[in-house]
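Good day; I would like, with your permission, to put a structural problem before you. The record follows directly beneath this note:
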Amino acid sequence: MKYMLKDNQAGFVLKDGVFQKMITSGTYHFSKMMGYSVEIEEMSGEVDYMEVPYQVLSGDTAFLNATLHGEIPDDSVGFIYINGKLTSFANRKEYTFWNVFDKYEIKIVSMEETEIGGDVTKQMLSLIPKKLYTEMSVGEGETGLVYYNNVLQKSVGRGVYRFWNYSRSVTYRVFDMRQQELDIVGQEILTRDKIGIRMNVSCMYKLRDAVEFAATISELKRPLYSAVQLVIREIVGKYKLDEILEAKEQISKEIYTALKARETMFCVNFLTSGIKDIILPGEIRQIMNSVLVAEKSAQANVISRREEVASTRSLLNTAKLMDENKTLYKLKELEYLERICEKVGEISVNGNRGIVEQLGRMIGTTA
C-alpha cells in the first residue's frame, strides 16, 4: 500500500501491531499482506499516538530527535513554554511534544524548599492551582507567624509570602502590632454611697510580642474587655459620687496603674486610659441641676449687689467732688443741659441774660 506523508506529518510503521520505526515526509510502500500498517499524525503539539509506550518509541532515533519528553517528579511542578513563552501549567506527570516546528520546553520547579522562591514569577503563580500553595499577606504594622505542621518556624514583617503545601501543612497567623483602642461603654458601677452610675472608659494598648502572645493566649478581645471592666468596678466602687465627680483625673490614673499591673497577663502594653463620661441617673441629674441653678442664682445676686454698691460709691464720690469744686459742678451742669437740649426741638432765648442762665431757668437748675 502507498503512503504519502506531508512535510508536517510523521508515520508510525507497525508490523503485526509491533512498532518498527517512525517515518517523515515522503512516499512509502508497505504491504498489508505482510502485516504492515502506518499510523499518520501531524507533528504539532503533543504526540497523539501513545498506544506504544514511550520507552519503545524513544528507541527510534528519528522519533527521539523530533520530540521532547518530560517527566515531572512528585516533589515538583512543571511549566510548559512554547517558543520561549509560558503557556500552561503541567497538570500531568509526563508529557511528549513534537519539537520540530515549535520549540517546547518544560521548566521544573522543586517543592522541597517550603517557601516559594523568586524563580517563580507572577505569571507562573497565576497558573499554579491554589491548593498547591499557601499565600500569606502581612500589612504595615503587622507581624506574621509561619507554622509547618503546627510548629512555629519564623516571624515575618510586611510583605507577601507563599509556601508550598507539599509533604507538610503550612498555616500562619497575622497580628496587628499597631496601637489599638478599647472602649468600655455604659459600664454600670455602684458607688460607695450606693448610687448606681454608668461610665464610659477608653484605653489604648498594643501587643507586646507576637510570638509570646501566640504561645500563651488564644483570644484577646473578650478577656481584655472583661479585665478592664473588673478594674473599673473595683477602683470606682471605692469612691462616693461626689468624690468621683471631683477626682475624675485621679481615678483615671488609678485605673491606668491597675491596668499596667496586668500587662503580662495579656502580653500587651497599655499606653493610656481614662474616664470619658460619667452618666448619672435621671433623679440625681435633676437634683444636681437644681443645686447648680441655685448656686448660679446666688452668684448672680452677689455680683448684682457688688455692682449696686460700686455704682452708689461712684455717685457719692462724684457728688463730693462737685460740692468741693464749683467749676466742676458747672461743667456737669452744662453736660446735662447739653443732653436735654438734644431732646428739644426748638428753644427761644432773649439777649438780656446769658444763654446758660436762661436755659437753666427753663429747666429749674438756676435760682
